[in-house]
Amino acid sequence: MSPYQVCVCFITRRSEQGVRQVLLGRKKTGLGLGNIVGLGGKIEPGETALQAIVREIEEESSLIVEPTAVSEVGFIRYAFPFRENWSQDSTVFVVDAFSGTPAESDELVPDWYDVTELPLDGMWDDAKYWLPQVLDGETVHASFTFGEDLKTVSESSFDAA
């Protein structure tokens, strides 16, 4: 396991037109600045991944989610051999029940995207390999290695769930 433990959650809803959407946010600070990402962040000492994601969702979007509504759907290991301190392990969650209205935070600007029109070109390169499947109800257990440019996936592997 990487010493750097994080979590990410993809919050979904149906629009007024019945279209399934996912809440993503454009990063305003830190690792991934400018990228469109799922909500989440570091797991603090003494926290479980579930406790961390509930906290992170509220901090980043003002939305409230109940821990019982959150589903764990995978685990991803990220390796950055050209910047080791970026390497991390991420627990992946989805949730479709929440209260509140998404609001901008110090960390990101949230926005709803149709699941069929994900902004993959604005996301980390690995998202194209697994995010559409997760939003389609599949689980993911994978490893991604990023190249020297720190942006492009150079190797990937998927494990049986």
Short description:
The protein is 14% helix and 39% strand. The protein is mainly β and 161 residues long.
Would you kindly provide a written description of the structure presented here, covering whatever features stand out?
14% of the residues lie in helices and 39% in strands. With 161 residues, it is mainly β. Strands 1, 2, 3, 4, 5, 6, 7, 8 and 9 form a 9-stranded mixed beta sheet that branches. It is globular, with a radius of gyration of 15 Å. It starts with a strand and ends with a strand.
Structural class: mainly beta
The percentage of residues in β strands lies in: 35-45%
What sequence of helices (H) and strands (E) makes up the elements? EEEEHEEEHEE
Mean pLDDT: 95
Largest beta-sheet characterization: 9 strands, mixed
Helix content bin:
10-25%
Q: Report the count of strand segments.
A: 9
Radius of gyration: 15 Å
Low-confidence stretches: none
Amino- and carboxy-terminal Cα gap: 17 Å
Number of helices: 2
Shape: globular
Features:
161 residues, single chain, globular, 9 strands
Describe the secondary-structure layout.
Layout: E1 5-14, E2 20-27, E3 36-37, E4 39-42, H1 49-61, E5 70-79, E6 88-95, E7 108-114, H2 127-135, E8 140-146, E9 153-158
Parallel strand pairs: 1-6, 5-8
Antiparallel strand pairs: 1-2, 1-4, 2-3, 2-7, 5-6, 8-9
